[in-house]
Design brief:
Mean pLDDT: 82
Radius of gyration: 16 Å
Number of strands: 0
Largest sheet: none
Distance between the termini: 49 Å
Number of helices: 1
Shape: flat
Low-confidence stretches: none
Number of domains: 1
Helix content: 10-25%
Structural class: mainly alpha
Order of helices and strands: H
């Protein structure tokens, strides 16, 4: 499942920092554990912190 997701993610063509390219993700890791739905841990990292923030002085 991890390999299939990695291939599908990289097929999107998003690339590093969303600028296009063949490699969007380097790896996909799936962990399985019994948890209560209210405390389901999920982590998603999207691009670089620098590309999500900007400022401008006029």
């Amino acid at each position: 499942m991890e390999q299939e997701l990695l291939e599908r993610i990289n097929a999107l063509g998003i690339g590093p920092q969303g600028l296009g390219g063949r490699t969007t993700a380097l790896a996909v890791h799936i962990e399985v554990a019994a948890v209560h739905m209210a405390s389901l841990p999920v982590a998603v990292n999207i691009n670089c912190h620098v590309t999500r923030h900007e400022s401008e002085v006029l």
